[in-house]
Prior knowledge:
Layout: H1 14-20, H2 47-57, H3 79-89, E1 97-101, H4 104-115, E2 121-126, H5 130-139, E3 146-151, H6 155-164, E4 168-174, H7 186-194, E5 207-210, E6 228-232, E7 246-250, H8 253-266, H9 272-281, H10 285-303, E8 309-313, H11 321-330, E9 337-342, H12 345-354, E10 360-361, E11 371-373, H13 385-391, E12 397-401, H14 407-420
Parallel strand pairs: 2-3, 2-4, 4-5, 5-6, 10-11
Antiparallel strand pairs: 1-7, 6-7, 8-9, 9-12, 11-12
Amino acid sequence: xxxxxxxxxxxxxxxxxxxxxxxxxxxxxxxxxxxxxxxxxxxxxxxxxxxxxxxxxxxxxxxxxxxxxxxxxxxxxxxxxxxxxxxxxxxxxxxxxxxxxxxxxxxxxxxxxxxxxxxxxxxxxxxxxxxxxxxxxxxxxxxxxxxxxxxxxxxxxxxxxxxxxxxxxxxxxxxxxxxxxxxxxxxxxxxxxxxxxxxxxxxxxxxxxxxxxxxxxxxxxxxxxxxxxxxxxxxxxxxxxxxxxxxxxxxxxxxxxxxxxxxxxxxxxxxxxxxxxxxxxxxxxxxxxxxxxxxxxxxxxxxxxxxxxxxxxxxxxxxxxxxxxxxxxxxxxxxxxxxxxxxxxxxxxxxxxxxxxxxxxxxxxxxxxxxxxxxxxxxxxxxxxxxxxxxxxxxxxxxxxxxxxxxxxxxxxxxxxxxxx
Length: 421
Ligand SMILES: *Cc1c(COP(=O)(O)O)cnc(C)c1O
């Protein structure tokens, strides 16, 4: 679907490309913006074309140079998924292929199942998204895959685990960690994966980065050496808390070719209407994320010295030199998530949430509206006491996802709510 006619020596920037490349109006009766194709099945021009399409779809044949292939059936592929996947490449530096899924969890699950074999291990950072942790610890374990958690911010332990784990099938990083914002050095982890001594027949483990919290605007894992980027498109990519979606992007299309058949089999491709909705939101991702990040920085820095707070967790307030270094080298801006730890523990945290009106007490993040939640009893309630303590998820911790409201209104509300605690 790519119009691909830019051979300019100065490549266009993502915000321009996302509006001009990856969608060809000629394939949609001239429609200036993408149309929706809801068909579940596609008509073949001839029985031979049908035979050829199935040979290609099942991997018995490869697409020849310049050959255009037929669509078959919407569980495998459909025009709106193709358009969305071409458009989103423009936002992710270094990406050459993408897949759209019907949730972030579907993207993570399908990628891991396609890449891992029984007997292998996956090294991953903690804290990680609750669903991801549940999937690795409680499902993959049943299929003979061992999960090896490594505490975020401990680059030494991460490199050690990547180096010493036998039959390592994949490395999964989530950075910054949620809800503590602790950062992992992506480049360092990729170097460790590349430096692994491989036994005969063993392949270098791919490094996957869940980039939901800072990407695609503020953090570019593929440029730092990662193999795959995964997103919950439910969050900043769609941005209005009104749909579920997941995206996987790769520098090497071969990796996407490995994952695609699993998506066709599981039936978790993003549906046409949702692809169309998400595609329409992509041109404003940078606008929304930049506004929300500026808001969050102003609010977090003003709350930093508040007498009722033990600490504010936010990248510009890092004190650890290693964390400051990673933030400076790896991220363009600090993003729109911060956590505050109230001095009065769980009661104070609950009272704070009860007093909010502009900000809503809800899980999820990345929407234009501000949301706040108590991780210990909601998003991270599956953690053991030990896991919570190690990860710094305390009773007084409240996580905030800042939206695009006026920051002064939000700051005033947070200050009033804190005063009433
Ligand atoms: C929400 C989220 C997910 C899961 O995405 P869904 O779209 O809810 O399936 C994965 N990782 C991170 C970091 C998330 O915030």
